[in-house]
Records
---
Amino acid sequence: MKTLAVTSGKGGVGKTALACSLATIIAQDGKKVLLVDAQFGLPNVDLYCGLEMGCTLGHVVRDGRELRDAVMATDAGVDVLSGGSGWKELSLLDSAGIAGLINSILSFGAGYDHIIFDCPSGFGDRVNPILEASDGLMLVSLGDAASLMNSYGMLKTSWEIKSDLKAGIVVNRVSGAAQGKQIAQEVQGIVGQFLSRELQYWGSVREDSHVGKACMERRPFSEKYPVAGASQDMIDAANCVMGGEVDETVEVSFLGRLKSKFNKGEVAADLQAEAA
Ligand SMILES: Nc1ncnc2c1ncn2[C@@H]1O[C@H](COP(=O)(O)OP(=O)(O)OP(=O)(O)O)[C@@H](O)[C@H]1O
Ligand SMILES: [Mg+2]
């Protein structure tokens, strides 16, 4: 999957935290990743990745600067495009303006293995052009009724906008894998019944204080705390996004996979300390 939209029906469910960690894991696996903060004008990716804004998408739109000038690289090797905070030139873009910007980003991103859009929640003029441009949709949902209801609505509309979008759900802030799977199965059942469509299960991420801690420390949680539970879960979700299946044997195999994925046979001292 080349272009992925990370979306949700409700706001505040963890899209940006998960998108930053997803991009980090894929980059650490040797792929070239472009992460686009599509909250144009109200960005958070820079904050969650510890980036200092220089030239931004605001400068691209207002001053005609080149997209390559606006790329910022994270410590883990993810390239990021972000809008800068409070730019009216970005917040006032109409749907044609957003579509034009997305098209430029797609052309610019041709050399990347994956382009990930961290979208605003819901749909509308600022999100629909991204859905149209995407191959896949990662739907982030919590397990409460309101979040699940809006997830259903988000999927229904997304497929109306682009019928061949490949969609997967990641259930965030669960107590464990069993709860995540059960919630996902309920949504899958409703989607199958009322939309006659297949919603894939791309995993769940447990409630984990390391996520908020990493946000405060301005690093993706999977980079800062790679052995934390949420980071283990995110590796499995990334594997699903890349076309694999949910690994039911996560506890047994995680350290082995961590070694091979993250660091050529070495687990850094701080990871060992945390694992102990
Ligand atoms: N698995 C988790 N465990 C604990 N805290 C989490 C988890 N996932 C997200 N959070 C916390 O939830 C808050 C919201 O996360 P985030 O900003 O990523 O949501 P969002 O969906 O991008 O919000 P918005 O819709 O405003 O863009 C953050 O404080 C984050 O630390
Ligand atoms: Mg966000």
---
Amino acid sequence: MCIQIGSHSLSAPVLVAPMSGVTDRPFRRLARRLGAPLVVTEMIASHAVLRDVREETRKAEIDAEDTPAVVQIAGWDPSVMAEAARMMADRGADAIDINMGCPAKKVVNKYAGSALMRDEVLAGQIMDAVVGAVGLPVTLKMRLGWDADSRNAPELARIAEQSGIRLITVHGRTRCQMYTGSADWTAIRAVVETVSLPVVANGDVVSIETARACLEQSGAHGVMIGRGCYGRPWLPAQIAAALAGAVPPADPDIEERRAILAEHLDAMLVHYGTHAGIRNARKHIGWYTEGLTGSAEFRQRVNNTMDPTVVFAEIDRFFADLGSDNSSGRIAA
Ligand SMILES: Cc1cc2nc3c(=O)[nH]c(=O)nc-3n(C[C@H](O)[C@H](O)[C@H](O)COP(=O)(O)O)c2cc1C
């Protein structure tokens, strides 16, 4: 089944997961440019959107070429969620995703995110309200359930289908597992068998091989990749090509990696301004260089400066040194 978001057909059934602090506008633009079929925005707190909190609304700034743009909203009040969805539609979203998977204490304590899986009535009211508020496709992201004794994803999927939800993503862990253990891809099959909607399987997909295994075990129509994209914004395009039966693009060589990292940093500086841009970019710089020769010392130097010129120069020097150590220009995985 080809995954369809409204009038947009994805080139391959590969989505990049919403990740707070990661899938911001610069990251989405970069991953899309490198060939990711779709990147979901960071979760946007519905109450904060209605209060017009700048930090929150800027998460929904969408580039014209970022289509289909799927904006994820979180919250617990159906009318607030509906209003936030309407605002996101006005700002150019092509689809709205409802967060019922976030396990973070500050989210579930307010009865949002994965806490909604414990209250199927409220979850249904939220989905009804959001679907009724916008003329856009509405999707749902959830986990297997709250804990091992309440794996109610199939039941919630049934409610979602009745509400008019158009696609469901399931992270193959319970809320209480947080990010521990491994994602249970086979458990996602129960959702696939309950609804006739497209189901996307999520959790621990980090390569072409794991993407294929996840699809086989879950029977899902597509995969969603989260942490596997850390420092590898080209990975979704590689998986997308492989699943579409094409030859996946090779890993970027050293010079290409340097250029991608520089492009990412530059976009973050433009988006956040120098101070926040440098601070927010540090984790990405760490991920791009993790495990490479001299990366610990490099990161220490980068983390000790707030001067973008120094950071760019350090990046150039780091990759130039790597290149002279490795004449092929390829980095061993
Ligand atoms: C740093 C971080 C931020 C996340 N933020 C969100 C979020 O905003 N909304 C959401 O639904 N899930 C969020 N998640 C969960 C991911 O979307 C995904 O379900 C989870 O990481 C499992 O997929 P993975 O094993 O491919 O990383 C986040 C995960 C991480 C690691």
